[in-house]
């Protein structure tokens, strides 16, 4: 296995679920709710798994390869994007399923997630393949799939402070589930 492939596979599944939502009749609110509920939980678990397992190791291998600035920037961007995705997902829950406002909120989540996935695939995943060997990518894939399996029904969405998470990772004390407060997005756009 390879963690970069598992992440790509998850991204494909997220794109598939957004596309499925577009094909359900808007009057079938039970089906819309069920599919959105699955997608929302999946988006949150996927981001949490990346924060717990992928990004700390991207930082480690990047720093070892004297690429500190590059991998720090990618990690800060990713956590900032994950916060935006978590916020967009929670917006959907505030709307009436099947309403125009609900569809607009789903489109907002699709946009935030689509932009993020493209960047993550182009930067973090590409760098990790270059910097990490196959055995490490396999070991992390096992940890990643186990994290997602343990949390298959979802995780509590908690916005993270990007800079604090990077500092904790570099100090070896990163805890993706610590619920660290959103102190401020240093690189918010
Ligand atoms: Fe991500
Ligand atoms: Fe991802």
Bound molecule kinds, no repeats: fe (ii) ion
SSE-based structural type: mainly alpha
Q: Report strand %.
A: under 5%
Helix and strand element order: HHHHHH
Question: Could you say how many structural domains there are in total?
Answer: 1
Distance between the termini: 35 Å
Measured as a percent range, the helix fraction is over 70%
Characterize the main sheet. Answer: none
Give the overall shape, derived from the CA principal axes.
elongated
Number of strands: 0
Average pLDDT works out at 91
Rg (CA only): 17 Å
How many helices in DSSP terms?
Answer: 6
**Weakly predicted, low-confidence segments:** 176-189
Please provide a written account of the structure.
Mean pLDDT is 91; it is low at 176-189. The radius of gyration is 17 Å and the shape is elongated. Helix 1 runs antiparallel to helix 2, helix 1 runs antiparallel to helix 4 (100-131) and helix 3 crosses helix 6 (162-170). It has one domain (3-170). It is mainly alpha-helical and 189 residues long. The chain has helices at residues 3-22, 29-64, 68-93, 100-131, 134-150, 162-170. The protein has 6 helices and no strands. One fe (ii) ion is lined by residues 47, 50, 78, 82, 116, 120. The site of one fe (ii) ion has 6 residues, from helix 1, helix 2 and helix 4.
